[in-house]
Each structure stands twice: as structure tokens, then as C-alpha cells.
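Proteins fold reproducibly. Look at a sample protein:
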Amino acid sequence: MAKCLVIADDLTGANATGVLLKKNGFDTYTLLSGTLAEGFEVPPCDCLVIPTDSRGISSREAHEAVSQVLNNFVSDEITLYAKRIDSTLRGNLGSETDAFLDKLGPEYMAVCVPCFPSSGRHLVGGYLLVGGVPLIHTDAAKDPKAPINTSRAQVLYEKQSKFPVASLYLEDIDKGVEHVCRKVLEYKAQGIRTLICDSVSQEDMDIIARALIMSHVPFFPVDPGVFTATAAKYLIPVNKKPQANKVLCTIGSVNGVARAQHQSLLEDIPLYNEFINCERLVDSEESREKEIARVVEQVLKQVDEYDVFSVVGDGINPEKRLDFPYHMQRRQMDAEGISELINTALAEITYRVLKQSPAFKGIYSTGGDITAAINRRFGTVGLKLLDEVVPLAGYGEQLGGAFPGLKFISKGGMVGDDKAMVTCVRYLQSRM
């Protein structure tokens, strides 16, 4: 029996979510709803995705269609239920979510995170932005089958759902996992059954997922697929035996190119990612050491579960960008000094991870300053250059120092297309 059941309102959306789950290492099948009546025996898999073709029908019929699938598949063996919705909020959002809430019981909360960063879908202040444009001003809102007359997700849900709805905004998510956990418990105590969460990045979705798990409130994702894949990553073990040789990606660049490349990495390769709080790295020596130790501990906790890991400064997300003038004045340093605090901290994290886990046989670094800081911390004597993976991305082996023979790829932060980081990591894996 599958550990994850996703019900989508159309086949295209079902397959899109299934692909995201597959990229995270889960065996995934899409089962056409018509086969349910034929008694088809579902093959063993991790995730099962079923489309109901219910986007353009009445809300009552949509509720019934989703309920029928749930009646056939609800089981104690399922760890994660999920409702796949359109990325532009078209269709019977409320009634189909209500079908889940009716079937799974009063202890469950629907958590709607309508964010798909690589497709330009973000929820900010409760408003859905499509490529930076409010939903109501896009062609999607003029869909003849399912027109939209508001950009506010909560308004749409309140019109369509019989259950209480609330929203959680970025100002809360930015305060971290424990704060979001407390907010979830507050909403649960108030009887909220559907919680709609702002999100603009993978980091936001990681925070929401971890907070929900910490709260112990039973929940199911309602989203275009990325949050479902995020929740599955935390809740369902991958049945793949990790390889002995692991890759650590240390990412220091904060420009738009690096951000797009890192987003592709998160979407295309099953990995464990940890964002580094750069504010803590420059605030004081005590907070710097605590943040370095925290990140190292989190990575090492997951070392048996993944083949690829990434540590990245949270400034890669524009809203988390460090206020350099403030810290320069407070620490009495110039910009170069503040940057050096960050670079050497990322190098220290890389050093400690590799020192404590011999499973890491390759590193990928982006940004010239970060790469230089890593080699200084390692005490590297030289670099044996072997190949160019993409323009301005060199592959080779380290000579001398703490990790002689370590495979590496280093790349400029503003070099390559959106898939350049993915290409480099896959190349590195193939050479180990």
C-alpha cells in the first residue's frame, strides 16, 4: 500500500505532482480514476496520485468525486494525504478540501500553501502573485470554465468551504519553526480547519512543514505540488539505500542567478538542504559559533538518509538579505570584513561536516570567495584540474591538506543557466 495518497483535480496536475515526488526518490504512480471501477490492482509504490477531473464540474459533484477516492483508499498505512490544486487557484478548492476534512475527521487540518517558486507562484500577504502580478490581473483569472474574481486565497476558500479558515503570513513564517508551531496550535485550539500559508521560497515551505510536524497536529497539504513534496520528504522514508560517497554543496552567492540555480537543485535532485542564518554569523562570536554548530549537527543527523546535501546562506532569498551598513557600523568593520565573517563560517561548516563524516567524497562550491575560504580552511596545497563541466566551472581533486584526493567542482556565482548547479552535482556524483 502506498504511504502517500494525492488526489488532483486534473491529470496534468496529477502528473506534475507525481514528478516532484519522483524527483525526491519516491516510486510514484498516477492511477486514472476510471480504473477504480475496474478493480485494477495497484502495484506496490511509495506514492499514488489520482486525478478526479473535477475542476470544471459543480462543487457538489467535486466533493462526491474526491470522497469516492478517499472511501476506496483511506488506510492506516497511509502516512500523508494531499490535495493537489491548480497553481492559480481555479476549480473547486473549498468543496474538495472539505471532502478530505469530512472523511479524515475533526482532528485533521488542511494546510494550503499555494506556492510554486519555479513557476512564479507566490502567496504574499494572502494574495497570490503569478510572475509578480496579482492573480486577478492575469489570464488565468479569465478562465471561462473557472473564472477568478479575487487574488486573495482566503476569500476564495471562505466562499467555497463550510469550515473555518485562517491565514498565516510571512511575518510569522520569518520567525522560524517554533513560532509557526505555536501559531498552528493556536489556530487548532480556535477550531480552524483550513490554514492558508504565505510562501515565496522552498525555505518557507520547509519551515511550515517542520512546524506542523513539531505541533503533532494531523494535517494534509493542499497545494500545486511543491509543499506536498516537501512534506513527503520529512514524513516518508525513501526506500533507496544511500550511496557511500556523498556530495556537500556549499553555496555562498546571493545573486539571482545562484538563487535560480539553487531552486532547480532543490527541485531536481533529492537532497537535504539547510539554510544558514547569516544574521547570526555576524551578530557576535557566540551566535556565530552556535549557528555553525547547529547547521553541522542538522546535516550530520541526515547523513544516512541522503546522497546530496546543500548548505546555503539565507541571503540567497532577497527578503533575508543581510543589512550590511547596519552590521558594518555595529561591528566597526568594512563590507569586506562582514563578508569574510560569512565566508569563513561557511568554510568552517564544510570542514566540520567532512571531518566528522568520511562518507563525503565530493564538494561543490559556488562563489569565488567561498571557494577560496574553503581551501584555506582545508589547508589545500594545490588543485589537480581535470575537466570543465560547464563554462567557468572546473572539476578536479584537492592536493594535500585535510582531505587529499577530495573531488571538487567550483563555479562562479553568476555563471551558467538555471540547470548549471544540477549539471555540476550530477557530474560530480558520476565521477565518485
Observations:
- DSSP finds 15 helices and 18 strands in the chain.
- The mean pLDDT is 92.
